[in-house]
């Protein structure tokens, strides 16, 4: 089933226009309805009144924020008209994580962006992105915070470990996989995972049959990593050398606290991936 409703998260950041262009291209490919959901990603008003001397600047800040929102809406509507596409604009005047996520559940695919390390609201954006991936119930296409964005998704790598999350991601990405010119199923082994696979008989041998029934022909590749905590870095490195332009992966197949403390695939992809990544939990 193709994507028929796409939702793009927009904001005042420099990458917002590139994110919108990417979403427009993808929506056009699937003849999908595009929702632009705007949030300023700003602290609550009380934060400006808790520090002495900041209150006088809050009115100026609000004026600037309203101007940024109006400019973003005008750009969104202009680009929709130019593309001859249908869409709608939804704006939140303040950062409101849960209402935004609840509204996101009405879409087939969410288009979001990595949090840039140079962004003043980096911590807020990173926290929001994790919440969207974990609680929206929808696949999230996360775009890198740097570099040129190409919405081709012609060469896709599936990060396959046999987990529930990986299986969910593959099915959520099916419209992209069916349209791709090349799909590679990549299994990254570690000493521990290799022993577990050998004892359980798990592997990547059967996924090609399922995908073939959806008219998706795949290649297989394998790589090795020293430990579970470095699999994400290995995946990013493999993707860069293979020339892929999209990665499909399950999100947080390990407990979320473990990835926060020790690192993991999901955190590496959210922070450092250099191509779009479709994540599902």
TrEMBL record:
Protein name: UspA domain-containing protein
Gene3D superfamilies for the chain: 3.40.50.12370
Stated family: Belongs to the universal stress protein A family.
Organism: Paraburkholderia caffeinitolerans
Domain UspA, residue spans: 155-279
Pfam families: Usp (PF00582)
Family annotation (InterPro entries): Universal_stress_UspA, UspA
């Amino acid at each position: 089933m193709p994507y028929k409703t796409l939702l793009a998260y927009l904001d005042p950041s420099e990458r917002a226009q590139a994110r919108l262009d990417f979403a427009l291209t993808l929506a056009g490919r699937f003849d999908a309805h595009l929702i632009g959901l705007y949030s300023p990603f700003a602290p609550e008003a009380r934060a400006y009144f808790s520090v002495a001397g900041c209150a006088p600047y809050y009115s100026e800040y609000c004026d600037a924020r309203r101007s940024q929102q109006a400019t973003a809406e005008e750009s969104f509507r202009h680009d929709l008209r130019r593309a001859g596409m249908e869409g709608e604009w939804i704006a939140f005047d303040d950062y409101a994580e849960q209402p935004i996520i609840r509204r996101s559940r009405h879409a087939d695919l969410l288009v979001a962006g990595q949090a840039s390390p140079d962004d003043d609201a980096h911590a807020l954006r990173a926290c929001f992105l994790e919440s969207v991936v974990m609680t929206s119930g929808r696949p999230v296409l996360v775009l890198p915070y740097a570099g040129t964005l190409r919405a081709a998704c012609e060469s896709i790598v599936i990060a396959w470990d046999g987990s529930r999350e990986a299986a969910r991601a593959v099915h959520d990405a099916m419209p992209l996989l069916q349209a791709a010119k090349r799909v590679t199923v990549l299994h990254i082994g570690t000493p521990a995972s290799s022993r577990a696979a050998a004892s359980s008989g798990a592997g990547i041998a059967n996924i090609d049959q399922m995908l073939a029934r959806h008219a998706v022909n795949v290649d297989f590749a394998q790589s090795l990593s020293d430990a579970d905590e470095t699999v994400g870095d290995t995946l990013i490195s493999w993707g860069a050398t293979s020339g892929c332009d999209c990665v499909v992966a399950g999100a947080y197949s390990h407990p979320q606290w473990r990835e926060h403390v020790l690192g993991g695939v999901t955190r590496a992809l959210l922070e450092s991936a250099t191509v779009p990544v479709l994540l599902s939990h």
